[in-house]
Amino acid sequence: MALPGTPGQRISDLCNGNHITQKELAEKIGVSASQLSRIVSGETRTVSSDILIGVAKEFKVSTDYILGLSTVSVRKSYDISELGLSEGAVRGLVTGAVDVQILNRLLEHRNFPKLIDLIRIYFQDTAAKGITARNQLIEMATASLSDLMKEHPEHRAEAKQDLQLLNAQKIGEHEAEIEKIKNVFLAILRDIKKDIDNGEQPGEAVTAAMFQAMRDALAEQKQKP
Predict the structure, then answer these.
(1) E strand segments, 22-79
(2) Is pLDDT above 80 for 39?
(3) Distance of alpha carbon 26 from alpha carbon 30, whole angstroms
(4) Other CB atoms closer than 10 Å to residue 10's CB: what's the count?
(5) Model pLDDT for residues 82-129, shown as the tens digit of each residue
(6) So where are the chain's domains?
(7) Domain spanning 7-76: CATH superfamily
(8) Which among 84, 102, 149, 182 is most buried, taking Cβ atoms within 10 Å?
C-alpha cells in the first residue's frame, strides 16, 4: 500500500518527529541545506540514492517508507555493523553456539528492555551507592541507640528492640538489585515457556547479506585442513 504525499513531506515529518531541523539533518547526511530544502518543499521531486540512504540510516527507517512505497517504517534488514555487536557475539550467533530462537524470544519480550536496564544499573553501581548511604545512616542511628543504652540502662529493653529493627533494615549493597534482576528474568522465562507450550512462534526471522557471508566464510574455514 502506497502512502500519500511526497518523499519530501515524509522527510519533513521525520525531522519534526525527531526534533531535528532540516539544516541539522543536511549536515548529518552530508548534503547542503538548500539541496535538502528543495526536496522537502517538492521543488526537487527526484531523491538521489545517497540522500535516500542517508535519511533512512539517520532515522532508522526503510527507504521504501520514505519513497511512499510502504506503510512500514522499520527496516527489514540492517548492516550488521549498525547493531554494535562484538565479533565474539556475532560469531556465537553465526556458529550456532547461541540458540537464536531462544535469543529471539528474550529480545522480543516486552520486559527484556527493563531487564537490561536493571543489569546496567547493577553494573554501574548506581543503586549500590544509595544503599551504602542508607546503611550508613542506619549505622549512625544504631550507634546513637547504643550510647542511649549505656547512658540510660532503664531504657535498655526498648533500645535493644529498636536496634534489632534497625539492623534488620540493612541490606547488602547489591542484594536488592540482584533480587529485582532475578524476579524480572524468571518472569520472562515463565512467559516464554508458556508461549512455547502453547505452540507460539517467535517473530519472523530477519536476514542480512553480512550474516550469510560470515556463514560462508566459516564453512570455508572448516573445510581447510
Answers:
(1) none
(2) yes
(3) 6
(4) 21
(5) 677 888 888 888 788 888 889 989 998 999 999 999 898 888 876 566
(6) 7-76, 87-217
(7) lambda repressor-like DNA-binding domains (1.10.260.40)
(8) 149
